[in-house]
Amino acid sequence: MALVLILLPIVMAALAAAIPSNRWRPRLLPVTALVHLATTVAVLAGRGPAIAVDYLVLDPPGRIVLLQISVLFALCSFYAVGYLRYREEQSNRVFCACLLAFLGVASLVTWAHHLGLMWVAIEASTLVTAPLIYFNRTQRSIEATWKYLLVGSVGIALALLGTFFLAYSALHAGLDSGLTLEGLLEHAPRLSKPWLRAAFVLLLVGYGTKMGLAPMHTWKPDAYGEAPGVVGAMLAGGVTSCAFLALLRVWHICHAAGEDAYTSQLLLFMGLFSIAVAGVFMVGQRDFKRMLAYSSVEHMGVLVVGLGIGPAALPGTLLHVLTNGLTKGVLFLSAGNIHRAYDSKSTDVVRGAMRRLPLSGTLFLAGFFAITGSPPFGPFVSEFAILNGAFDSGRFLTGAMFLFFLLVVFIGMGTTVLKVVQGRAPEQVLGTAYRDGLLTGAPIVVLMLLVLMLGLYIPPPLTALLDDAARFLEQRP
Amino acid sequence: MANLLDSLLVIVLVMNLFALGTSRIQALIRIVGAQGALLGIILLLVHEHRTLPVVLVAAAGVAIKGIVIPAIMMRALRQAEIKREVEPLISPLSSIVLGATATAFAVLSAGQLPLVDQNEGALFVPTSIATVLVGFILLTTRFKALTQVVGYLVLENGIFIFGMLLIEAMPMVVEMGVLLDLVVGIFVISIIVNHINQAFSSLDTRRLVSLKE
Q1: Which of B139, B158, B189 sits opposite A149 (nearest CB)?
Q2: Which of A34, A99, B130, B201 has the fewest CB atoms within 10 Å, measured from its CB?
Q3: Total number of domains constituting chain B
Q4: Residue B98 falls within a domain, yes or no?
């Protein structure tokens, strides 16, 4: 099963690179995505081993991220077919191959139970997504790709150093555990504390760069702003989820080692700082795709705050991985449609999207309400659960700051979004060719319905999955 | 053996300072390539038991860090038709002074770290920290895209030195994965560098300023 999930997309990527027809190639995306989704559901339903080889184990947190990425990718793959039809003049060979390869390496991240292997997979996810940002071949997209590659590579190099420090903390304690998650968890209380703490800082900075936590978020607005909408959705809902999973694993080891007091300080600071920075840059933001990037910075902050609060907020944090990932899909895909219809992403030109593109405009507005935590959507439930966790564990100041910053974000993001959707569209954009179609519309509707469903009703298997994951992460040896 | 290893690690440190002192990009790429190859040789000498994984990783390290990556970068350099780093943020001489300070700091601070007995007194940890710091100096004070990539490679070399203490803890799959990621990374970066050169007629990353708030 693991081999299907990891290797099939990579084989399909090679196939995509070999197919000469620009028209047929994109169809590999939905085919691969549906097989991947079906396999994922089968594994999650227990119809297949969750252990492949020594280093490949699908544990409960891995299941959640795998499910989220597989669902998001499946819907994005249909959208991508529609999108690439509008861009037929340009070769999509690299685009399709890299998108498929990303699905493979993301699956590897969720299965990897060796911290070194997980690092390799996350670095690979940086490399396969870089050409996607460069799809438009403009000066601005080169600049964005360069920043993404350089900042991302340096960050991830620090994460490698942190991984080595973690291995050294085991070596120093005279343990023969290597870097497998099982070994490290089992011997966690005996790990050498100074090395473990240093490792945590480096891994937080390293994987935090990949997640886009402030102040390492500088690549994010550029990359998300210049990448096509569907790539933005995969970056904000896929790459960041993988990086968060990596951080979650490191947190798990520190938690098992009894280092909660140390880690939670750092996590709470980074998380609240990220939400605050996102809020500051969102107020008065005129580029609506950059605004979405800051929204992603904000929600990575929310996840890290949830982790910093500790076990009380874990179920909410894990649910937030799902709700944030899917809502980001709605926002980036509808923003991509609006961008195409107006040929601009500045609110100076983009107005009246509800009239020009009734479907995408409405979904963009609904996505905004969802991501800012308005009921009855999914993120409301998960953010509320995180807030509850903060108050339950007596962190009133954290809870209050969290609420205040979310309010700032709501106001800042709301101003920009309302400018985009309301009013009258300028005359010159009424003539552009783009209209909402089935392939570029329906996937967003499905994503939006999923987000709505998570807010109203969480199916029992999913509840069981979340409980399993929370229990798995709380256990100490 | 310990003496030989320490002298080789000192050569690594000296190479760091040479890298900081040169403004010719071609020389810079050669120095970093030589440093990478040297690290592969050191890896062979560190372990008394030269098991197959150790030999393979060392051979791959020499081939990739010493030959493949310098070749990719030289190609990018030829296509870009530039020769030297003009006007770095700080002069080569001040960079050397800064690098020497960083090295001294690394040696002093490594003395404070709790180390496994067999690593006590050896130069591995200080060399690793110093090389990482020098990588950061190169990354932040140089503006040519290719020089920044060299900075990243020096940083990676520093991490590789630390990894030598742990070769038993890392399965070969992972070591090879790290090296493969590095090659592919440099390959992708070189392509982007080439595109930067075509689109901006320069490799000066200070021109990449159209995206900001």
Answers
A1: B189
A2: B201
A3: 1
A4: yes
